[in-house]
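Let us work through a complete example step by step.
Step 1: write down the sequence.
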Amino acid sequence: MDKPKKRKSVFLLLGALLIAAAALFVFGWLAEEMLEGDLQQFDTFVRTAVHQLATPGLTRLMQVFSFFGSAAAVTAMCLAAICVSLYFRQARTGALLAIMMLGAAALDVALKLAFHRPRPVAFFGTTPSTYSFPSGHALGSFCFYGMLAAILAKRVRGRGAKFCVWMSAVLLVGMIGFSRIYLGVHYPSDVIAGYCAAVVWVGAVSFLERALSPEEG
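Step 2: predict the structure and record it as tokens.
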């Protein structure tokens, strides 16, 4: 790898680690505020404002977005992506996907059990039996669709195509998080915390992948 490319790679990695550190700080702050009950006013205000947007058609749309962030959907798509990677002899990509999503699942369970935040009463459908903080849909969708976007962006040509790939992932992940607030099964702070936890985990995996990569050139 020539020096300009290596320098750019190092700067990108440092930037990712700084973003991960900031996300960890925000997550810690949210957790502390949540435990002290200081997020109640914010959560109630946002939940009420979002619920006022409700229409039958929008509810059906939000249920679709929520499904795309569910454990069943993400797991099925992740397994399909791993199989495709192995078919094209991209074992490293498949392994990274597996590590990313297994770690995300374990992190979600561990954090939910650590904070024991009860769920809000759902606006639509039934209230899930699991704990609320952080949002597993937000965490899992960020990790999977972000990773998928990174894989696809490397394989498409042109800045326009890369931009479309990344924007599609950003919009999908954002709508999945919004759907959880709209349906009333999560507090807004749960969703924000889920994204923050995902950023930290993505940063950790990226650092590990970079550290274990053989030097080129």
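Step 3: interpret the result. The chain has a mean pLDDT of 89.
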